């Protein structure tokens, strides 16, 4: 009788103590109480990355047990490399620093770009708020208002970029290599806000970035016709842009199509990842992954994002990690071709 009673008691205790793996981290609300999380963006204030991060930052805390304060900061330079190196080498793996950078940097690591000291395979990814639909927009003042006029341009059309690994730089170079369009990429801008100002002053003619960012940060110029979306760099057209042609339709060879796949299509899925330093405790990673996912389903965030023209199409941290790991499996011969194209 005593043995049976003890067996029932052990079973009861095991049942009470068991917590589903996905819910284990969420149950731990002690660490973040009274703490502050730094959400550090790799690009300048006023751009698309910054807009997403500040919107997310206003809602993330309520989905984290303990409701820590969220402070959004900007750490610019070298097209995001300074930020990524900081996250890898200096950020404490305690779950109190979240990074937001360009997914293209993880391809740049594979290509051996100078200055990279991080290993993208080792970051702990929380997810992506939306897969980008990369589009090239050109100012009316440049005289280029269509792909046909772009092909016929007598001088290379100047496009702004933040540096290798940044969407603006890599997409413009990929389109140039795959399609033979006349393009001159000017690197060194701190973000899309700076590129926009340079385009408005006539210093640049255009930029290739996410339509989600382009239509948000360049809204007035697009509405007035001062900036025109002329080419979509994705496999399918965006519903907003039924009359804007696809780059893939101008790709004449299998190599050109593969350049667009690896240089644009695949990295667009992970173009603005949120991640933690390597070595962050797994329970804390899971807690923040859940909080990130819940934030992107939050009706208040979705309403604010809609008002700001920020499209939300959540990609999980696990899926982001799978894409990053997959990039490391590209065959060496094609890596060499991509390096020739994307690393100046």
Helix content: 40-55%
CATH topology category name of the largest domain: D-Maltodextrin-Binding Protein, domain 2
Q: Report the portion of residues in β strands.
A: 5-15%
Main β-sheet, in a few words?
Answer: 6 strands, mixed
How many structural domains can be distinguished in the coordinates? 2
Give an account of the 3D structure.
This protein has 344 residues and is of the alpha/beta class. It folds into two domains: 25-130 and 270-342, Bordetella uptake gene, domain 1 (D-Maltodextrin-Binding Protein, domain 2, 3-Layer(aba) Sandwich), CATH 3.40.190.150; 134-267, D-Maltodextrin-Binding Protein, domain 2, CATH 3.40.190.10. The protein contains 15 helices and eleven strands. It has helices at 2-17, 21-27, 48-57, 81-89, 104-111, 147-151, 167-179, 192-200, 211-217, 219-224, 254-269, 282-295, 299-307, 317-327, 332-342, and strands spanning 36-41, 69-74, 97-100, 124-128, 134-139, 157-160, 183-186, 206-210, 227-232, 274-276, 315-316. The strands form three sheets. It has a six-stranded mixed sheet, with helices on both faces. Helix 2 packs across helix 12 (282-295) and helix 7 (167-179) packs antiparallel against helix 11 (254-269). The protein is globular. The N and C termini lie far apart (79 Å).
